[in-house]
Amino acid sequence: MKLNKQVNVWWSSEQEARSQQWFFEDLSNRYCLEQQEASEVGLPAVAKSNETTIAIFPEITYQQILGIGTSMEESTVYNLAKMSPEKRLEVLKLLVDQQDGAGFNLIRITIGTSDFTAQTFYSYNDLPEGETDFKLEHFSIQRDIDLGIIDTVQELLKLNPELKIFGSCWSPPAWMKTTGSMNRGSLKEGIQYVEAYAKYLCKAASAYESLGIPLYSMTMQNEPLLEIDYPSCYMSPEQQAELVVILRQELDAQGLDVKLWIFDHNFSDAWGYTTPILNNKAANEATAGIALHDYEGEPAIMTELKAAYPDKSIYLTERSLWGVYGADRILQFFRNWASSYNAWVTMLDSTIGTHQWVGTPDPTLLVQDASNTDHYWATPEFYLTAQFSRFIGAGAYRIESTLGSAESVTNVAFVNPDGSLVVVIVNQTELEQAYRLVAGGWQYGSSLPAKSAATLVIADRG
Q1: Domains in the chain, start-ordered, CATH in brackets?
Q2: Which of 81, 126, 323, 349 is 20 to 30 A from 454, alpha carbon to alpha carbon?
Q3: Rounded to whole angstroms, how far apart are CA atoms 387 and 397?
Q4: Where are the strands (E) in 186-322, listed by range?
Q5: pLDDT digits (tens, 9 = 90+) for 226-256
């Protein structure tokens, strides 16, 4: 019996995971998205005693995948602007190219500044203290144009026309807030402020669309339970419920098909925040999905939310992860119904700059040499993230597979729109681990080096 299925395999490994040393030098790494020799599947057989068996059931499907990617926050754009045009283009290709790069197809941008910026904090409607502008007559995204954000996103879209962009806002304009500042505070009470902020977000989406950058979706407030000394804004779930309804109306009136994702904060607070919104009929109807961050709590909350609100998609909109523990965490996101994953902060430089976060960041996907700005290097996290993003296509569906265990290997499996199967396998242990895949009528056996991830693409021979 000829099975006629080919297996292509790529490996990436961790090295000095999360070490600050990656900011200062390009440490050597064993495997960097390295393709192994192709092979074929065989007939099912009795498992060897040292093998972990992963059973795959392609006929059992779960969520559809929107995309996997990173962020194009202003810190990264600022560092890109220091490069020669040729090197800048090289980096952008490395991010979105499906054949030779990471194949990122979902990019997060900030609506106004975030904490990761080299600039003075700004919104699109900054006014002298004490003034208001409810008609938004002074609205402008000119700063985004001047800083090269628009050019950068436009160039990414040229390199990958299928790329989807979503936006998140860190703070309303200062005049709308209780502090009179982009930092801390909350949106002022009163429907006039909710309406003004909805118009502000709608105008941002419209301005980007007019420049050839349609927003696929938007979160209305990054981390709405956080007040801190950078752009931030506390927003109660009740106020966000009002906002999502009014913003949906504003977008529809302008003919903008921008999907609205609520929350955009940690697993640990998801239930308390999302239920007052989604149990409100009008707010539920205006909401397309739930956005989550992974800084507190566990991914299992996403499965609970999906069970409670099955018509709402789940998105992992921000996390930075390192090593094979991080790769395993990403596969847990997908096994718990996430339809996307986005890394936060793409490229700082070797001075760990430039940003205005209150802490010291861990290594980013790419690092720029501050003394020679055309020189940069990729950290292992770039390659470990690409083990997912290069091979799992937009429109893929997660399929059923047995997990394995952290003591051997773990995995997550998908079927791509072209019918190929993709299985990402992670070995967090200090030893090489043997495994075998078993599906209807065939099996494939191999092993994975210590502290490494593998992606297997299984397809019929042409």
Answers
A1: 5-63+398-460 (2.60.40.1180), 67-391 (3.20.20.80)
A2: 349
A3: 17
A4: 215-219, 259-266, 289-293, 313-319
A5: 999 999 999 999 999 999 999 999 999 999 9
